[in-house]
Amino acid sequence: MNIEKNLSNKEVFVEIRKWLSSNGYSVIAHDDNRPWGGFFVIDEKQIDTFRKQFFGEVAFSDFQLKNKLSPKILMVAPGKRLSWQYHHRRAEVWKLVAGEGGIVRSDTDEEGEVMEMETGKVVHLEKGVRHRLVGLENWGVVAEIWMHTDPGNPSDEEDIVRVQDDFNR
């Protein structure tokens, strides 16, 4: 997949939706109005296909496979940043699948430098690790799986602890 940096948010969403459809994925939710870009939520029933396509090299425990994994595709716009954040009830795995993306991470609230993500390389984010996805000069397309650490109370958007946010959320 090749995403051109001069495409609008709507055009990128159309391209990604076509690509997901051509790969047989069912999108159960999406948000194309995030100030940093947006995301697609893939049907949980397709987690095996999603996992094999994007995270075949990651070993998932029986515990993890028995619980919700919340597969998503994130799109971060050039020059935009998600909030500097962490979570109490989930770890995450990311993989840059197209375009360009950067990541910042730390065990403390102190934000370090942006490290360029490598296409196809898995990034592990443990529960509590501060992190931020950053758009570089082109759109970044990232596959993501949430690793819920409390199956009785799975993580959701309310489990985002924002340390800093460019959009004052």
Strands, helices and their partners?
Layout (H helix, E strand, L loop, with lengths): L8 H14 L4 E8 L2 E6 L4 H9 L6 H5 L5 E5 L7 E3 L3 E17 L8 E2 L5 E4 L4 E19 L12 E4 L5
Antiparallel strand pairs: 1-2, 2-3, 3-8, 4-9, 5-6, 5-7, 5-8
Percent of residues in β-strands: 35-45%
* Oligomer state of the chains in this structure: single chain
If helices are DSSP runs of H or I spanning 4 or more residues, what is the number of helices? 3
Reported for the largest beta sheet, the result is: 7 strands, antiparallel
Q: Roughly how much helix do the residues carry, as a percent range?
A: 10-25%
The N- and C-terminal alpha carbons lie at a distance of 32 Å
H/E topology pattern: HEEHHEEEEEEE
* Residue-averaged pLDDT: 93
| Uncertain stretches | none
How would you explain this protein's 3D organization?
With 169 residues, this protein is an alpha+beta fold. It has helices at residues 9-22, 47-55, 62-66; strands at residues 27-34, 37-42, 72-76, 84-86, 90-106, 115-116, 122-125, 130-148, 161-164. The chain is 17% helix and 40% strand. The strands form two sheets. Strands 1, 2, 3, 5, 6, 7 and 8 form a seven-stranded antiparallel β-sheet that branches. A hairpin with an 8-residue loop joins strand 5 (90-106) and strand 6. The radius of gyration is 15 Å and the shape is globular. The termini are far apart.
Name the descriptors.
169 residues; alpha+beta; seven-stranded antiparallel sheet; two-stranded antiparallel sheet; 17% helix
